[in-house]
Write a structure and sequence with these properties.
The structure holds two protein chains of two kinds. By secondary structure, chain A is of the alpha/beta class. Chain A folds into two domains: 3-122, no CATH class; 135-309, Rossmann fold (3-Layer(aba) Sandwich). Helix content of chain A is 52%, strand content 17%. In chain A, strands 3-2-1-4-5-7-6 form a seven-stranded mixed beta sheet, with helices on both faces. In chain A, helix 11 (227-234) links the parallel strand 4 and strand 5 (238-250). In chain A, helix 1 packs parallel to helix 3 and helix 4 (42-59) packs across helix 8 (124-140). Chain A is globular and about 55 Å long. The N and C termini of chain A lie far apart (52 Å). Chain B is mainly alpha-helical. Helix content of chain B is 60%, strand content 0%. Chain B has four helices and no strands. Chain B has helices at residues 3-17, 39-53, 59-64, 68-79. In chain B, helix 1 (3-17) packs across helix 2 and helix 1 (3-17) crosses helix 4 (68-79). Classes of the chains: A alpha/beta, B mainly alpha.
Chain lengths: 310, 80
């Protein structure tokens, strides 16, 4: 293993285990991992280890396959990057297209979901965004908050919140019954059995529905054809003193990303123009690149915002 | 187009894409020599070359390039 990479990881065994597995499957990825890990603060390295432990708890038994699927996923993402920089747009624009190519393709989804799980550990902007959420949310959300996460994936954001945020209740929603079952199973393996997991379309909410104190949408809005419509609807179920956390990547081509935002202001407007006031925000570019340079080169930036209803 | 003109244009592209203050061109320059040259910036480099010289690179052409000199050879062939 690359000595420099080993030195950066230090005494973080889960991170080391995953990095080694990836390098076994993809030796040429060493330089990327070294750069990604060297950009991290101590706090971000601690989050990395926490996420690595969770990833190993979820899928550690099939780590070599997971690492191979991470490489496969990165290959797909490079194809989307090439299209994006050539054409200046995301390849797909409708949910029907993404459903046909990705969500309804079981073989594709199995590899893609594995790849995304390891990206949560190994990509700088993912870990930095998670660290921001993990360190800022406890000081911003009400005590005994009722939390709702929409589009939870492996459920890692809900897992961290249930573990550390002093919630009174947690609920997750997804459109897909398969995804809901996947999240329920993942949370159970992480030792979190108390989460209400439901098949629910965020567009179906109304003023009479139960209110939530903390609503989380992490890497969800870019998968939706009209994310502003979703935020306008969700405004109705955020409690008056409640908070939303939105993490949305800009300039982020991916096989199932539909809604392209090119600037931080376009991401902010998703909240400002739909009934929210941004309380706190942070931005994290791929590989820890400086924001100005990332925006100039249309490189992915994760835009994280805590906002309250106004 | 003269090879020297191609290398001059390529050097300007690399300075811009890899955010360099300056760059002394060599045929054997590769990703190992430039810290900012990684798999993602390589895509932007390839697309910048396509736009500058007016042709499309195939995936196999992109994957087979080992250094900048091979890129200049490829550009010469494409423009011939």
């Amino acid at each position: 293993m690359n000595d420099a990479l080993l030195g950066i990881i230090g005494d973080r065994p889960a991170t080391r285990t995953i990095a080694l597995a990836i390098l076994d499957a993809w030796p040429d990825h060493a330089r990327y991992l070294e750069k990604s890990l060297s950009a991290r603060t101590v706090s971000e390295l601690q989050t990395t280890e926490l996420l690595a432990q969770a990833a190993l708890t979820l899928e550690g038994a099939r780590l070599p396959e997971l690492a191979a699927n991470y490489r496969w996923t990165c290959d797909r993402l490079r194809e989307e990057e090439l299209f994006f920089h050539r054409e200046g747009r995301y390849r797909l624009t409708t949910f029907a297209e993404a459903d046909a190519e990705v969500y309804s393709n079981d073989a594709y989804m199995e590899r893609y979901v594995d790849g995304l799980l390891l990206s949560q550990v190994m990509w700088y902007n993912h870990v930095a965004s998670c660290t921001y959420y993990f360190t800022q949310a406890p000081g911003l959300i009400p005590s005994d908050a009722k939390m709702l996460e929409i589009g939870p994936g492996h459920g890692l954001m809900t897992y961290l919140a249930v573990r550390d945020f002093g919630l009174s209740a947690a609920t997750v929603w997804d459109l897909s019954p398969v995804s809901v079952e996947h999240t329920r199973s993942a949370l159970a393996r992480l030792g979190i059995g108390s989460v209400n997991c439901a098949v629910r379309n965020a567009l179906s909410v109304s003023e009479t529905d139960d209110k939530f104190d903390f609503v989380v949408l992490s890497e969800v809005l870019e998968h939706i054809e009209d994310p502003a419509e979703v935020m306008r609807k969700l405004r109705a179920i955020v409690a008056p003193q409640g908070l939303v956390f939105v993490n949305v990547p800009i300039n982020s081509p991916s096989p199932d990303h539909l809604y392209l935002m090119r600037t931080p202001d376009e991401a902010r407007d998703l909240l400002r123009k739909t009934g929210f006031e941004i309380m706190s925000e942070a931005m994290f570019a791929t590989q820890g690149m400086k924001l100005e340079r990332a925006l100039k080169n249309a490189v992915t930036v994760s835009v994280c915002m805590f906002a309250r209803p106004v | 187009m003269e090879r020297s003109a191609i290398t001059a244009q390529l050097t300007e592209i690399m300075i811009d894409v890899f955010d360099l203050d300056e760059l002394e061109y060599r045929d054997d320059l590769s990703a190992a020599d430039i810290e900012e040259w990684d798999s993602l910036s390589n895509i932007r480099f390839m697309v910048a070359v396509e736009k500058e010289f007016g042709f499309r690179l195939s995936n196999s052409e992109i994957e087979s390039l080992k250094n900048v000199g091979e890129m200049v050879d490829l550009i010469e062939r494409k423009l011939a």
